[in-house]
Amino acid sequence: xxxxxxxxxxxxxxxxxxxxxxxxxxxxxxxxxxxxxxxxxxxxxxxxxxxxxxxxxxxxxxxxxxxxxxxxxxxxxxxxxxxxxxxxxxxxxxxxxxxxxxxxxxxxxxxxxxxxxxxxxxxxxxxxxxxxxxxxxxxxxxxxxxxxxxxxxxxxxxxxxxxxxxxxxxxxxxxxxxxxxxxxxxxxxxxxxxxxxxxxxxxxxxxxxxxxxxxxxxxxxxxxxxxxxxxxxxxxxxxxxxxxxxxxxxxxxxxxxxxxxxxxxxxxxxxxxxxxxxxxxxxxxxxxxxxxxxxxxxxxxxxxxxxxxxxxxxxxxxxxxxxxxxxxxxxxxxxxxxxxxxxxxxxxxxxxxxxxxxxxxxxxxxxxxxxxxxxxxxxxxxxxxxxxxxxxxxxxxxxxxxxxxxxxxxxxxxxxxxxxxxxxxxxxxxxxxxxxxxxxxxxxxxxxxxxxxxxxxxxxxxxxxxxxxxxxxxxxxxxxxxxxxxxxxxxxxxxxxxxxxxxxxxxxxxxxxxx
Length: 515
Description:
Elements: E1 9-11, E2 26-29, H1 31-37, E3 44-48, E4 56-67, E5 73-81, H2 90-121, H3 133-146, E6 152-155, E7 161-164, H4 169-186, H5 191-212, H6 218-238, H7 249-282, H8 284-293, H9 298-310, H10 312-324, E8 328-330, E9 333-336, E10 339-340, E11 358-359, H11 366-383, H12 388-412, E12 427-428, H13 431-459, H14 461-464, H15 466-514
Antiparallel strand pairs: 1-5, 2-3, 3-4, 4-5, 6-7, 8-9, 8-12, 9-10, 10-11
Helix pairs in contact: 2-3, 2-4, 2-5, 3-5, 4-6, 5-6, 7-10, 7-11, 7-12, 10-12, 11-13, 12-13
């Protein structure tokens, strides 16, 4: 008789008669019932129901014929996850409070601690004057708030005051992902608990404003509220706490369009990132030369490199703006598809990767973005081709999601309306033209994808040219394999984390028993 696999077995005390000692009510499933189900033949299963809200339930398994060292029958407790019922706020309030605070504080520490460390390493420098470590913490907080859209005031050694409003989007993404991950790990279910997590994150952000001794601007307030709302919602979705959407064809079409829009956003982000990396590699000599010309020491070099890495997502948005048509500006230097203008640039090494002033390739480069959109949208068009109205709805949702998110990213990356780096008062790209251009590229790509799918079906290309059918089948198989691999990786990560928690709990019980 084969023994069924058990997730995790822990011994449970037994009485002299071999029955498990438990103070919780149990539901016992006898051997015959298990045999009819085809599972665990020869085993008695007792399910313990905890009176309070917990994450696990214990299954007692009695091994037939097995006895313990004391003569009693062996019993094991199998701990399995169970779905928590919503509506219990008190045990979730503390987890929600911790989730909101820890995510923001950890993100803040990642910026503030290196700044304080740099101050400690250069505390004897005459340029610091009477600055203290608290001043360094204030500067780190101001730099972190820059990622939330807050203006940063910089005072030079000669007393010159400059303002920086260019947001390093890496800090914005890091804060949002950290908050979403904390909310997901907290496993919240009560609606008020999510509000508690959002409020805790807001309190942590207000603490950073207090330390930096500055007042939030309207732009920073809106950015922070949107970031917290999106992050908490994403964490709730990832943890499965959001209610299921109604099973309706129009809802399914909207979901398909939103997913297609998300894939298109990833493709556009990859286009911008690849462009920035290519420019840095091609003009690496100029970047390194400007870096050496600044003459930084070892610590200053590390700080400068990290600061430029945090700005890479911002530069990727600017590169995408160039591909989509609106372009971007850095002070008097305008970079568009028509060409690169002349003018002063900030002494930032990575900006040396910009092409030399001169004419550009022209607005025809927008075709690449349209082609990428068509390739990404072909699967959703093929899936919904039989229902034109639902297909139109899905493409409209994908176009709207793409235009909205790209426009918001353009606004966060600076935006020429009021953005500044010291005397350079026009930095970044215009949010509204960029969003409209991204939506137009998505709409054009959707139309081309529709024509391709319709033409292939009308001309029956799969039957005329077997190679096309083979390529399509291989692509479908590749997508299916990739989905299975990602699913296994996600399950392995969850299993590894639960196994680690089980190992720690067993070690804790062993220490308690040894005492």
